Amino acid sequence: MDQKQIEAIVDAVLQQMNAPTGLPRPVQTAAAATAPSVSATDDSPLPDLASEEVKRWIGVTQPKNSKALGDLRSATNARVAVGRAGTRSRTLPYLRFLADHSLSRDTVFKEIPEEWISRTGLFIVQTQISDKDEYLTRPDLGRKLSEEGRKLISEKCVVQPQVQVVLSDGLSTDAMTANYDEILPPLIKGFESAGLKVGTPFFVKYGRVKVEDEIGELLKADVVVLLIGERPGLGQSESMSAYMVYHPGVATTVESDRTVISNIHKLGTPPVEASAVIVETVKKMIAQKTSGINLK
Ligand code: B12
Fold first, then answer.
1. Interval between CA 292 and ligand 1 midpoint (Å)
2. Fewer CB within 10 Å, N or C, the chain?
3. 255 lines ligand 1 (CB under 6 A)
4. pTM, full prediction
5. Residue 267 burial (10 A CB sphere; 0-12, 13-18, 19+)
6. Residues 6+ positions from 33 with CB-CB distance below 8 Å
7. Domain 113-294 homologous superfamily, CATH
8. Rounded-to-integer distance, Cα 72 and Cα 157, Å
């Protein structure tokens, strides 16, 4: 069946549905043939949806300017140049969308692995949340420490540190496991080199950003740096943020007192680079005795 016959059938169907006809439709051309070949293997009926080949695949047929399209495609990780089949998505981008969505859901629901916690040597405390479902439905409880958590922190941590680092799974467990090795050691080293008194880092399970205020108040810290997993996007589920606040207090801190560095991951701000920026920011906070929108 040739392209004209296919278009005639589509127009007939659209007419029956009282829909406008003559919508532009993709036509296979040489431009599409220049896209990387995405083929299935004998073992798997589907291509690897996480592969670079699939991510870089160009699905637009008959582009007016193939070079511009190629440049656009390689300039961003956004879902561009994926083409369409009539008014709908083409199969490959649709499958990739589902795969990315699954990754994002997985990282939100995934529990922090116990082996990972033991490997890092961090001690772990919990908020007033008991499982992931509650974490997602009760953000208020993710902002408060459990009684046991408060006790452990008081027992194990250095008090009155100039800077207290806290880590939390937040909305992405992968953000923590993927970035930890490249962010925590350089961060602590950076603070020590700056001559700051550094607190005992620990992990908060099921944390929300505001939990840092209670921790800061409890330990009488000058600055708290919370490294937390961000809400994942479609195609980026390993992103971490650093939320920093000067002299935090449960009743006194407002959102505008926080300074945030977001998009910390290997394809965004690399974790090692982020640690250097965090150290500089904390130094400024201590020097200026403030944070958030008041920090110059
Ligand atoms: C969700 C979200 C929001 C939600 C937060 C509600 C909620 N409870 O989740 C809403 C829509 C309210 C929001 C508002 C704003 N956001 Co916002 N937000 C995000 C997003 C998509 C995810 C954050 C996340 O995962 N947090 C982790 C979870 C565990 O935290 P949480 O405790 O559940 O929620 C807290 C944080 O989300 C925090 N928060 C959210 N956004 C911001 C922004 C700033 C500057 C601060 C200090 C805190 C903050 O406030 C929540 C309550 O305490 C990020 C994108 C990203 N890649 O990180 C942008 C992002 C953090 N937001 C941003 C901005 C600019 C804002 C606003 C200033 C927009 C505006 N002009 O009003 C406001 C400020 C809100 C504030 N708290 O001060 C920027 C920050 C850029 C920067 N580096 O300074 C980001 C990175 C988006 C972006 N790429 O531009 N945001």
1. 13
2. C
3. yes
4. 0.85
5. exposed
6. none
7. Ethanolamine ammonia-lyase light chain (EutC) (3.40.50.11240)
8. 50
